[in-house]
Structure to design on (272 residues):
């Protein structure tokens, strides 16, 4: 896979995936259909792009690096159903790329901008059906974690609030060139299967969850009082109503129970 002509830019997170078996599995999980719009973030030399184009999908690939685009063109040519957009994905207008419709977003993305990319996709979720991303394995585990797991935290809550999240494939670091320092995983976010949580005040919900995980060793009750200013009796009542033990820490509380808790706290605040 080594290519002497191409200067890999570490600063742009350029670790190209060359494991054909993993690439094939990723493409079949993405399951692109003819005519379907697929937006690829950071196509690099086009290993996945080629497979996506072969499905007959309409592929729009957003790549920041002109040299990578040249490399992609050498490798896979310019299929008719491929449009390359030479931009920073964090700067593009998602509504205009998708023409205001929903698309699947895929990418083996640079790890240093995983959070801003996920946040941008969440903000633009009206244009996103599903997302498939290769990310650092530890981040994928945090995205998909459930209560009781060591990796469960604010990122799990944020992703799972908006989408059904699945860790689909583990990918060894040797599948990339240059070999990165960490292993990866392929993860999906399905915005069309987001849980129906019925949260009344999203801001309060995230204040409670983030506050709880920022002090994950402390009991949640202290955080509820600190964040909202409600008294001990009201905080105990809200925990009880949400089916959460008075001594619970954030990491033991499911997304669903956090939603119930934030609604009970919201009602208490409105009464007071
Ligand atoms: N998808 C290719 C693969 O699997 O081999 C390349 C993956 S490499 C980890 C990440 C790619 O994202 C690189 O081609 C890099 O130039 C590009 N990239 C980095 N920052 C970007 C940004 N802000 N917007 C768009 N592309 C970016």
């Amino acid at each position: 896979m080594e290519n002497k002509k191409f200067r890999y830019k570490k600063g742009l997170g350029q670790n190209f995936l060359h494991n054909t078996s993993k690439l094939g599995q990723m493409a079949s999980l993405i399951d692109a259909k003819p005519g379907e719009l697929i937006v690829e973030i950071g196509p690099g030399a086009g290993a996945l792009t080629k497979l996506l184009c072969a499905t007959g999908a309409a592929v729009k690939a957003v790549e920041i690096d002109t040299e990578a685009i040249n490399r992609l063109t050498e490798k896979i040519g310019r299929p008719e159903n491929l449009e390359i957009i030479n931009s920073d994905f964090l700067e593009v207008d998602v509504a205009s790329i998708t023409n205001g419709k929903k698309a699947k977003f895929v990418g083996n993305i640079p790890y240093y901008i995983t959070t801003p990319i996920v946040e941008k996709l969440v903000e633009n979720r009206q244009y996103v059906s599903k997302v498939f991303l290769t990310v650092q394995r530890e981040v994928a585990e945090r995205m998909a974690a459930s209560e009781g797991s060591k990796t469960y935290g604010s990122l799990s809550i944020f992703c799972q609030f908006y989408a059904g999240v699945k860790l689909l494939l583990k990918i060894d670091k040797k599948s990339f060139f240059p070999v990165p320092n960490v292993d990866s995983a392929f993860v999906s976010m399905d915005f069309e299967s987001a849980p129906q949580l019925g949260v009344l005040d999203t801001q309060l919900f995230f204040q409670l969850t983030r506050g709880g995980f920022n002090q994950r060793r402390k009991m949640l009750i202290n955080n509820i009082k600190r964040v909202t200013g409600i008294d001990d009796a009201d905080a105990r009542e809200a925990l009880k109503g949400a089916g959460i033990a008075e001594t619970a820490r954030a990491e033991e509380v499911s997304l669903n129970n956090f939603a119930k808790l934030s609604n009970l706290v919201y009602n208490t605040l409105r009464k007071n």
About this structure: The chain has a mean pLDDT of 96. Residues 12-17, 41-44, 47-48, 62-65, 68, 88-90, 108, 110, 113 surround S-adenosylmethionine (CB under 6 Å). The radius of gyration is 21 Å.
